[in-house]
Design goal:
heterodimer; A: about 210 residues; alpha/beta; Pyruvate-ferredoxin Oxidoreductase, domain 3; seven-stranded mixed sheet; two-stranded antiparallel ribbon; 9 strands; about 40% helix; globular; B: alpha/beta; Rossmann fold; 2 domains
């Protein structure tokens, strides 16, 4: 593993390491959608590239269907941080409903700025208050692939593909590798295919506004 | 180049796997070849024993798992197995820990090495499953060794080390490894898992002062003359003091094998040239390190001193780094009601209150505290010191960005912050 063992932050110190060499990500989903698993797979993907990563679940109202959060950090070197992500550079939204209802949308966009990248599961662009929006219809991809568990389309792995496309913080190959080793066999293949398709289909909102017909 | 250097020093790299803190503890238990685990589920600990159960059922671990009806029984069964001569382990949190409290004294007083993981969590009422240190610090006077991890790697390493330290004839006391609930227990980070051969080399075969064997009965826990009892307690105290040397030896050797050195009871981040010091335990001390660098960018020379061990208490290290500082900020994630945080009280006595000292209470009940909050706390305290010269504040509560000074002794008239417990306020006014 190429992971650096030096946890001192080097000459620049830990604060600069966190600000300049690390990416902070927040996942929003509904309980049962696998936001925590997505964050965990992202860490595995980062590790595949010799980077350091961390996935933090946020517990409290982890009921099925409730609005749940998970945090992740990716860095060139280990960062000794364990607090929550307050000003995410990337926000991944697993359920478009969370961007449509005003109260939920506020929670999704908390701490976001115009530099924040939103990666959302939605068939068409939605209002993200000036942030940069990448979107993909992960629900459709899941249905097409038959990736439906207990009536719920599985979108978390697709959204990792979308994240790789929108931000490049990890490569799609690392994502696919992480998925396949998390679920060996057919389930892994199917989820990897979903991620790959989402990677292909992810679009930047501004450039695509007119062509969206759904 | 790096590999060659490692070959020369004898460091052997393990396998880096992303895992939760609870998984890290479970792997440490497996690597330590524990033979009996007894446990009762409680959030956020449960994953540890679930993972161990999984390792046993897959045939990766050769141990007996005893499902008991309570935490009191969990530690009783663990302790019983250990008296029988095997390495034994249990894990708990919060209410589970206070429920088994009596048995902690039985294990320590019997001088039987046992290792337990405590995944720190607030104690109800009201109900709260999140991180706090009131549970682990309530074990402070029981005669158990207590270590506290900052991250998942340390949770694994300290658990392995704890078996060696507690089973050393100079110690023969049980030990607790603490890791913060959710913040470590459920957070996924890369953890380097050492090879089995390495751990086998590091951990000698099980040693303990006596064993119960079938056909050779012994009596334990008898009533003894008061003088003998007091001498027994004096001996426990001596052993606990001796434990620090054993920890240093074990930590140094673990470092030679793994490249991760634990020969000090504390971890210092930029302490030596600092004017001000953060002191504390657990995972948030990582955020304190980031705050140190942020504060240094602003021209405030801070350092962070983390107590990796709470028992034995790192008295010498604290004095070495703390005595000459302008001010020491002690961060406490629990309160001894009516006075101050337990860590503050201990640190203050070690430093004879010589530097300016402020005990900051924060993050109780899992409230998120990050490096930015710590910068705010540091600037506030530095301001107080600038203004008044010398300050000694045992309890200054930091809550959602605001400071609430708490007087030691009689509390000020009841004043609940408005945004907290509004309902309670209403109920109270109706009642009075």
């Amino acid at each position: 593993m190429g992971l650096s063992r030096d946890e001192s932050g080097g000459e620049d110190g830990l604060y600069k390491l966190l600000r300049e060499k690390s990416v902070e990500i927040r996942f929003h989903g509904r309980g049962g959608q696998g936001a925590v698993t997505a964050a965990t797979l992202l860490v595995a993907a980062a590790l595949n590239e010799g980077k350091w990563g961390q996935a933090i679940p946020s517990f409290g109202a982890e009921r099925r269907g409730a609005h749940v959060l998970a945090f992740a950090r990716i860095s060139e070197r280990p960062v000794p941080i364990h607090s929550q992500v307050r000003r995410p550079e990337i926000i991944v939204v697993l359920d478009s409903g969370l961007l449509l209802a005003e109260e939920e949308r506020k929670k999704v966009l908390a701490g976001a700025s115009s530099d924040t990248i939103i990666v959302a599961n939605t068939p068409k662009p939605v209002n993200v208050g000036g942030a940069k929006l990448y979107y993909v219809d992960a629900t459709r991809i899941a249905r097409e692939l038959g990736l439906v568990v207990a009536g719920w389309p599985v979108v978390n792995t697709s959204m990792l593909g979308a994240l790789a496309k929108a931000t490049g913080i990890v490569s799609i190959d690392s994502v696919l590798k992480a998925i396949k080793s998390y679920w060996p066999g057919r389930l892994g293949e199917l989820n990897a295919e979903a991620a790959r398709r989402a990677y292909e289909e992810t679009r930047l909102a501004q450039a695509e506004k007119i062509t969206v017909t759904r | 180049m790096a590999l060659e250097a490692e070959e020369k020093t004898g460091v052997r790299r393990g396998t880096v796997i992303p895992m939760r803190g609870n998984d890290a503890v479970a792997y440490a238990v497996k690597l330590s070849r524990v033979k009996v685990v007894a446990a009762y589920p409680i959030t956020p600990q449960t994953i540890i024993v679930e993972k161990i159960d999984e390792l046993i059922s897959k045939g990766e671990m050769d141990a007996e798992m005893i499902h008991v009806e309570s935490e009191h029984s969990a530690l009783a069964a663990t302790y019983g197995a250990a008296v029988g001569g095997v390495r034994a382990f249990t894990a708990t949190s919060s209410h589970g820990l206070v429920y088994m409290y009596e048995v902690l004294w039985w294990a320590a007083g019997s001088r039987i090495p046992v290792v337990m993981a405590v995944v720190t969590r607030a104690i109800g009422a009201p109900w709260n499953i999140h991180v706090e240190h009131s549970d682990i610090l309530s074990t402070r006077d029981t005669g158990w060794l207590i270590a506290m991890a900052e991250n998942n790697q340390e949770a694994l390493d300290l658990t392995v080390m704890m078996f060696r330290v507690t089973e050393d004839p100079r110690v023969y006391l049980p030990g607790i490894v603490g890791l913060d609930g959710f913040i470590l227990s459920h957070t996924v980070e890369p953890v380097e898992v050492p090879d089995q051969e390495l751990v086998d080399e590091f951990l000698p075969p099980r040693r303990q002062p006596y064993t119960i064997e079938s056909g050779a009965p012994i009596a334990m826990g008898n009533i003894i003359p008061d003088e003998a009892f007091e001498e027994h307690r004096m001996d426990m105290h001596e052993s606990m003091r001796e434990a620090r040397r054993v920890i240093e030896e074990a930590g140094r050797e673990y470092g030679k094998l793994t490249g991760r050195d634990y020969s000090s009871l504390v971890e210092c981040y930029k302490c030596s040239d600092a004017d001000y010091l953060f002191v504390g335990i657990g995972s948030w001390m990582g955020d304190a390190k980031i705050a140190v660098d942020a504060l240094r960018e602003k021209g405030l020379r801070f350092g962070a001193l983390r107590l990796r061990w709470i028992r034995p208490f790192p008295w010498d290290e604290l004095r070495e780094y703390g005595l000459e500082k302008k001010a020491v900020i002690v961060l406490d994630r629990s309160i001894s009601f009516g006075y101050a945080g337990p860590v503050f009280l201990e640190v203050s006595s070690a430093l004879e209150a010589k530097p300016s000292m402020v005990g900051v209470l924060a993050g109780v009940g899992g409230v998120d505290v990050n490096y930015e909050d710590m910068v705010k706390i540091a600037e506030h305290v530095a301001g107080l010191v600038e203004e008044k010269g010398r300050v000694y504040v045992p309890a200054l509560w930091y809550h959602l960005g605001e400071f609430y000074p708490m007087k030691p002794g009689p509390l000020p008239t009841r004043k609940t912050p408005r945004h907290v417990n509004k309902l309670l306020e209403e109920l109270w006014s109706k009642k009075t």
